[in-house]
Amino acid sequence: MKQELYNFFGDRDDKYRLANIAGFVCGGQIGFDLAVQQFAVEMGLPLDICLPYNYDLFTARWDSNRFRDILLRHMDYASDITIVDAEPYYKIKYCVPVGKYHVSKLQWRNQYMIDNSDATVLYLNPTSDKGGTYNALQYCQKMGKPYQNIYTEYKP
C-alpha cells in the first residue's frame, strides 16, 4: 500500500502535489490509517490523529504490540490528538459515557474526521456495502464533502 500512497499523493520530488496537502487527519486504525500516518511522518507533513476513545481502550483488542508501538510513535509525531468521545458535541449528542466502548464511537470518529477535513481519501473495495469505511463514504456523500477512493485506482 505504501507505493499506492506515493503514487496518489506524491513523493519528496513531487513538490507541487505535496504543497497542496495541508496535512492529514487519520483515525489510528490498523491498515490504511496507519499507512497514511506513516506516509505523513516520512514526508514531514502535519498529522492529526483522531481516536474514538482513549488509546488503551482503542488498542485493547489488538493482537500485536507492533501496531501499538507504531501508533504511539505516530501519536508522538502528531501535531494534534483528538479523543472524539471527549469532544463536547459528541458527549452531548450521543450521551454515551466518555472512555467507555461503544461500537458507534468508531463511526462518530469517522464523522469527526470528515467534518474537520477539506477532503477525504478512502481505500474501499467498490463491492463492499458495509463497514466503517463504507459508512464514511456514505457520510461524505450525505454531507456533500469531496472524497476519493484510491482502491479503484490502485487495487491490491
**What would the CATH topology be?**
Rossmann fold
Compute the separation of the termini in Å. Answer: 7 Å
DSSP summary: helix tally = 8
Which strand-content bin applies to the residues?
5-15%
Rg from alpha-carbon coordinates: 15 Å
Query: How many independent structural domains?
Result: 1
- List unreliable stretches of 5+ residues: none
CATH architectural grouping: 3-Layer(aba) Sandwich
Question: What does the main sheet amount to?
Answer: 3 strands, parallel
The mean pLDDT is 85
Strand order of the largest sheet: 1-2-3
CATH C-level category: Alpha Beta
Estimate the helix proportion, in percent: 40-55%
Number of strands: 5
Folded structure, characterized:
There is one protein chain. The protein has 156 residues and is mainly α. 47% of the residues lie in helices and 12% in strands. It has helices at 2-9, 15-19, 32-43, 55-59, 65-77, 88-94, 104-115, 132-143, and strands at residues 24-26, 47-51, 80-83, 120-122, 147-149. The strands form 2 sheets. Strands 1-2-3 form a 3-stranded parallel sheet. A two-stranded parallel sheet has the order 4-5. Strand 4, helix 8 and strand 5 (147-149) form a beta-alpha-beta unit. Helix 3 (32-43) crosses helix 5 and helix 7 crosses helix 8. The longest helix is centred in the middle third of the chain and has 13 residues, at 65-77.
